[in-house]
Design a protein that fits this description.
283 residues; alpha/beta; two-stranded antiparallel ribbon; 12 strands; globular
Length: 283
């Protein structure tokens, strides 16, 4: 059986949520997630408040700027700070995006990597170097993307084939993002459920679920700024049916709803987990 770094229902810790989360029971969650870059460095009152959360909750971390697929050398100064952050706060795992975000400077967006065998070898090597430096396996998240880089190879890989090849060659974990699968499925014309079923469940660390913006019928933008829609909830059920109950985190980065609405979405994750657990017990 897979051993997960956390269990249950999670939420991304944003500073706008620190007030409600500081009141026990106001927002019932089992674990929290942070982007290390948003909290390094910190001191004073903020550091004391953050320590209060890490003493109450299990934490995972999700990086934003390592640029695993980028042309620039890996930022080992950043990685050193992340390694210290993970150890100081007993963070259960570290994940990053299967993308790049720098080229002689920060691009402030997550850019897609060409789906080629050459790119598999390149990014897998960089992931292995990161894992060696941190002394632990990391997880990678398949990202949402809106255009595909031009590929000159005679046989380009599909997205699922590319992701699976990187996971295998790097021997790393996976952060399954259900909303990214939905958004990409609409934008690029494939079945998101088949994509999820084709991933290696034994590598999954945990799951992201989020809302997005409808730019057009055939263009969805991953924003984390709205309510999760029913088709995305159904994809979460697909993941549970395929892999069993998975730790699942609600991403909300802005447009924070009232606490009651946030709790309703978190409760929906818990309900889905309980349904799947009940099915497993009956089986």
């Amino acid at each position: 059986m897979t051993t997960f770094p956390v269990t249950g229902t999670g939420l991304g810790l944003r500073r706008a949520l620190m007030g409600p989360l500081s009141q026990p029971g106001t927002i019932p969650v089992d674990f929290l997630e942070v982007a290390p870059e948003n909290w390094i460095p910190m001191g004073g009152k903020l550091a004391r408040e953050f320590r209060g959360f890490t003493e109450r909750y299990p934490f995972v971390s999700h990086g934003l700027s390592l640029s695993l697929g980028g042309p620039e050398p890996l930022d080992f100064e950043l990685l050193g700070n992340i390694k210290q952050f993970l150890g100081e706060h007993r963070i259960r795992c570290y994940t990053e995006h299967l993308s790049y975000c720098s080229d002689h400077g920060h691009l402030y967006d997550l850019m897609p990597i060409p789906f080629t065998e050459e790119a598999v070898h390149y990014v897998a090597d960089r992931i292995r170097r990161v894992q060696d430096f941190l002394g632990q396996r990391i997880g990678i998240e398949h990202v949402s993307y809106y255009a595909t880089p031009e590929v000159t190879e005679s046989r380009p890989l599909g997205e699922l084939e590319f992701v699976n090849a990187v996971l295998e060659e790097a021997d790393c974990g996976l952060l399954l993002d259900v909303n990214n699968a939905y958004v990409n499925g609409i934008n690029h014309g494939y079945d998101a459920a088949d994509f999820i079923r084709g991933l290696p469940g034994e590598r999954i660390f945990y799951v992201h679920i989020a809302g997005h913006f409808d730019e057009a019928e055939d263009l969805k933008v991953d924003t984390h700024g709205s309510e999760v829609i029913d088709p995305v909830w159904r994809l979460l059920d697909v993941a549970y049916d395929q892999f069993g109950v998975l730790p699942t985190l609600l991403e909300r980065d802005f447009n924070f709803p009232p606490v009651e609405e946030l709790n309703r979405e978190l409760g929906r994750i818990g309900d889905a987990q309980q349904r799947r657990s009940a099915v497993s017990r009956r089986a």
